[in-house]
Design goal:
CATH class of the largest domain in chain B: Mainly Alpha
Structural class of chain B: mainly alpha
Order of helices and strands of chain B: HHHHHHHHHHHHH
Shape of chain B: globular
CATH class of the largest domain in chain A: Alpha Beta
Number of helices of chain A: 24
CATH superfamily of the largest domain in chain B: MetI-like
Oligomer: heterodimer
Structural class of chain A: alpha/beta
CATH superfamily of the largest domain in chain A: P-loop containing nucleotide triphosphate hydrolases
Largest sheet of chain B: none
Largest interface: A-B, 31 and 23 residues
CATH topology of the largest domain in chain B: MetI-like fold
Bound molecules: adenosine-5'-triphosphate, iron/sulfur cluster, magnesium ion
CATH architecture of the largest domain in chain B: Orthogonal Bundle
Number of domains of chain B: 2
Radius of gyration of chain A: 26 Å
Distance between the termini of chain A: 46 Å
Number of strands of chain A: 24
Number of domains of chain A: 5
Radius of gyration of chain B: 24 Å
CATH architecture of the largest domain in chain A: 3-Layer(aba) Sandwich
Amino acid sequence: MDVRQPDNPLIEIRDLTVEYWQGERWNPVIEGLHLHINPAETLGLVGESGCGKSTTANALLGYRPRGARYRSGQVLFAGQDLLRLSNRALQRIRGRQISLVPQNPTTALSPGIHVGDQIVEVLMVHRYSKTVREARERTLDLLARVGLPNPPVIYKRYPHQLSGGQQQRVIIAMALACDPQLIVLDEPTTGLDVTTQAQILDLLMDLQGSYGLAMLYVTHNLGVVAQICTRIGVMYAGQLVEVAPRHVIFKQPLHPYTQGLIASVPRITAPKQVRSLLLKGLLKRGELPAGCPFAPRCDFAQERCFAEKQHLTQVSDQHAVACWRWQEIPSFAQRIAETQSAVFQKCETAGCKAGEILLKVDNLRAAYTLEHRRPFARPLPRVVVDGVSFDIQPGETFALVGESGSGKSTIARALNGFIPYVTGELRFDGKYDLTIPVDKRARDLLRALQLVFQNPDASLNPRQRISHIIGRPLQVFFGLSGAALRQRVEALLEDVRLDRSYYNRYPDELSGGERQRVAIARALAAEPKLMLCDEVLSALDVSVQANIIELLADLQAKRNLAYLFISHDLAVVRSLAHRVGVLYWGCLCEVGTTEEVFTPPFHPYTYLLLSAVPEADPDQVMPEARKDIGLIVSEEKPACPFALRCPWRDPAHCHDEPPPWQTLSRSHMLRCHIPIEELRQHDIWADRFRRA
Amino acid sequence: MVVLRILFLRVLWALITLFAVSFIIFTAIEILPGDIAARVLGRYATEEMKAEFRRMRGLDRPMLVRYGEWLSGVVRGDFGDSLVSEFNVGEVVLPKLRNTLLLALYAFILYIPFSIILGSLSAVFREGVLDTVLSSLTLIGLSIPEFVMGTLLAFIFGVVLGAFPVVVAINVARSFGEAVQMMTLPAVTLAIAMAVYAIRMLRDNLIEVLESDYVRMAILKGVPMYLVVLRHALPNALVPALNVTALNLAYLIGGVVVVEKVFAFPGIGTQLIDSVFLRDAPVVEACALIISAVYIVANLFADVMTILLNPRLRTAK
Ligand SMILES: Nc1ncnc2c1ncn2[C@@H]1O[C@H](COP(=O)(O)OP(=O)(O)OP(=O)(O)O)[C@@H](O)[C@H]1O
Ligand code: SF4
Ligand code: SF4
Ligand SMILES: [Mg+2]
């Protein structure tokens, strides 16, 4: 192996091959992996879903999940091979010298035990603290250390009484408890809001400095690794294809896969995105060639690539790549420059006549349940969406952004007639009233308004063939059958770039991205005028995401389709939406064109959201001054819903006087007491949001 | 407090159920074929004698009136007099109830650790030798009726080995030790019959919990396996198993009928069967009502435990 070893790595994976029992045989999911982590460094491990990141993380803890086996290789730590240690010896290392922060904090904490006691448990089993009392004191210190307010109160909480961000902090405190040398973080912020994620990243960066501990940070989020990691390893189909310091990975990636991956990430500061020409197709685990696993998708593949295994080769002191053609492949900068001509364009709204309105939402209030405020008083709806107004023009993408719980999905559900208590004016296509529930709607309306969900698995019947799934709305709405039906289904499959071979397949034979396309095709089959897309990209990998973003834009251009696009991913919104509404605690606080919303002056909340997004560019450092306290919800909503959390609130009127809507341009409005002129002059808006 | 309200509703519901059951029992016995007067007075009684007997015992009045009287007595703890023996029903049933409760308690004490230990071992070492053997045994256990099992045990331990008495004449036991020894075979029979369900249930629950993220987390923070099971896995796996235990408790009181008969144990089950045979309505009613009450209380208990063991509900405001 010609990978140069550092003098003294903290932990080292050598030639690791892991197999899983899948169906009826053992399949390798990691093959010949070499990786080392130096003391006090943060190594990022990125790659598409299923590439073996979590499997690698498990190996670092010497953990063998059921149905897995270590075929070959070693994990060397302090002179021992973790894969060959007894359970007893592993117990002494896990949680003491190497600890884990898993992906989902909600399920990782024992439901019936006070969170504080769960930390005490680690301290006691490793005899890190001599007495329970000492352990309790240390636990309180740790809880304070990870930024939890009022440690004695948090100590006595059960996991379900904490928010996702707080739970993850508890887990981090637990991981830090015994002063470990290495923390393995497996997607620690996936599933958290951007603002919460930013706080957790802050905390981790802080720890990097003060403890001098090493971290392995596993994620599919390139923005996060760009911010927090010193070195980055890129995995593809169970192999490490490139390792380099983060600047090199982001600025001069050599491997074609890394290049494609980096180019696929939507940027929050760069509105236009490089067309995802760089990564085509999908990772098909079952059809990997004997040689380079990336060969079926690689633009530079030659015969030799398919036949010959590629090993990591050192190309400079810190940089290794697994591609024998690395010297011949054009540089990243050059490839980007070449594809600039094909820059992804948002469909311009030129198609629609000015002033024409497809959907008008005026003062929408929506509630799921009734609430008894006082005994014997008439119960009132518990309002989740409170007086929201916006409109959507034909052929336009309107995006709703905001943290989880802000009411985004409720708005989509209300438009679809799924919410029991709805008031306000909801007019669609001039003639339809959307306050009526879904079961009383005219067929034409059902057809013209289609919904696509976040999770395609839940909405596609696994026992129906793709042809049936897409054909159903064609039969119902247009009475198609026989050859005409088949022709139309095939045309729709082509529209979402799935070839005919999918016609007779079942959903579980498709990847997540392909299933999402089937869901989109089914919605398109009804020939809607407006599609409600609720987090349709959230569950997908960046390269698949890039494909679907492009697909949605193409379809819009072709069919003059309008989207209500709900997403918590601001970078995606920036690359796709024409106009954006920012939602907080059920109220809109800013509406404008994407350009207007994403550049100063900002509404204070918009700024908080934007500054929390980790940009996939190591030069764009996250703004330091973000002492955001996180989502606060109390019984009484202040006049400005954001007042409990706003760093610029003015106690004189923000709590009691509803802030006015201020108009900045014909399309741009924001709701705040701070006068526009003052907002414009705010010097705190970080430079990165200024228009280039 | 949400919990208090839920508890209150559950108790109220249990009382309503009990009331309904009392009515059903009373009606059922009323329409049961067979004539008590003929039973008590013998084959040669004349119609007049029978009518006189019914009048004396108040059996000729409308059913609803008698039900009302009976119910008001029951509420005061008075089940009326036995038609056969002229003793108060309480005097007949109470000693039997005590015997049965002792037997049930004994069986229960055996059952709990037995199922928890075997269920846990099977789950932790799943697909191992122990698990495979236990799975087969519980499967067999599920398919044999308890009177066969009782007879089998009685044969092996009582007749062949002579270790325990086969006929349980508990009333003649001279010491506590002897009573325990006498009750062992029926208690073991009952315990096994219940454990068969519980072991399977606990095993499946525990396997699910052992696959959970928080158990994996506990393992990966270096907690020894036995502590992982005791602290993190078992408490969460036991909650669903509680319902089985409630059903088991209920079964215990009913299944006891059969097992008592096998071992000729003087309990409430034996009493019930004998009284049905004699058409002694007040005693049958009392026994049936007591058994139903135990059943309902057992279920109530399981629900309450489930609520109290669930931190989400316990802490809800
Ligand atoms: N218990 C299991 N049994 C069989 N196959 C498994 C098992 N766990 C994972 N795999 C397979 O192993 C491969 C690698 O899985 P792994 O969880 O390491 O991926 P990952 O990179 O962490 O993905 P993600 O980003 O989705 O978490 C995948 O193809 C997956 O389907
Ligand atoms: S080895 Fe060949 S197929 Fe693999 S990345 Fe390099 S050029 Fe592409
Ligand atoms: S109105 Fe006040 S509290 Fe609300 S966003 Fe503006 S400054 Fe902040
Ligand atoms: Mg993973």
